[in-house]
Automatic annotation (TrEMBL):
Superkingdom: Bacteria
Entry keyword annotation includes Isomerase: yes
Gene3D superfamilies associated with the record: Jelly Rolls (2.60.120.10)
GO molecular function: isomerase activity
Family matches, as Pfam families: Cupin_2
Residue span, Cupin type-2 domain: 33-102
SUPFAM superfamilies in alphabetical order: RmlC-like cupins
Keywords, ordered alphabetically: Isomerase
Organism: Geodermatophilus ruber
Region feature (Disordered): 107-133
Biased composition (Basic and acidic residues): 107-119
Protein name (record): Mannose-6-phosphate isomerase, cupin superfamily
Length: 133
């Protein structure tokens, strides 16, 4: 019998200063926490075959999905269906902390990227590929 996989998500997200940290990877979904520094952003991107749900733990920011913009803050949730161009920008003086669920997984299992630059480099080098069954 499998054990219960449990996180106190706000605590997990708040204690990680890493840009991106994969907390859990399953066959069909992946749980990732992110911390975007003041003035920073995730970067405009499109996940062709992956849906994404982002929940904001602290900070303030702006969600940009398919050219539409919405301010986001603690407790907000944004859905990004597969194939839509999106970006999330920190507009406040404190880190923008969030957790996101990808379906299917988008990043390497257990990946930790301290900065956006490191994350981008590893993606470009093909070192951040999601597991294949």
């Amino acid at each position: 019998m499998a054990s219960v996989i449990h996180f106190t998500i706000a605590t997990e997200a708040e204690k990680s200063a890493d840009f991106r940290r994969v907390l859990w990877t399953g066959q069909h979904t992946q749980l990732v926490i992110m911390t975007i520094p003041p003035g920073g952003e995730i970067g405009e991107e499109v996940h062709e075959d992956t849906d994404q749900i982002l929940t904001f733990v602290s900070g303030t920011g702006k969600a940009i999905v398919s050219g539409s913009e919405k301010n986001v803050a603690q407790g907000d949730l944004v859905v990004v269906p597969a194939g839509l161009k999106h970006n999330f920008v920190n507009t406040g003086p404190n880190p923008l902390v969030l957790y996101t669920v990808y379906g299917p997984p988008e990043h390497a299992d257990g990946a930790v990227h301290k900065t956006k630059e490191e994350a981008d480099r590893l993606e470009e080098e093909g070192k951040d590929e999601p597991p294949t069954e």
